[in-house]
Amino acid sequence: MAKDILGEAGLHFDELNKLRVLDPEVTQQTIELKEECKDFVDKIGQFQKIVGGLIELIDQLAKEAENEKMKVSG
């Protein structure tokens, strides 16, 4: 009965019987979203490393091609 009244007021008890403002379902969704965001940030970091390596490789190849052009025209 008391939990129903508190629930209607937007207050909930967690598993440790602490009073919370957020609904337990919303809290769980927030935790899941936080984990998904962390995974996304990790994947973006990996992507940036891969792209950075690719850019370095392309720059190196461009310099080598430019050197060969200079040899041919010189």
UniProtKB/TrEMBL annotation:
One of its GO terms (cellular component) is intraciliary transport particle. GO terms for biological process: cilium assembly; protein localization to cilium. InterPro entries: FT20 (IPR028172). Keywords: Cell projection, Coiled coil. The keyword Coiled coil applies. It is found in: Cell projection, Cilium. It comes from the Eukaryota. Its main location: other. This is Intraflagellar transport 20. It comes from Callithrix jacchus (White-tufted-ear marmoset).
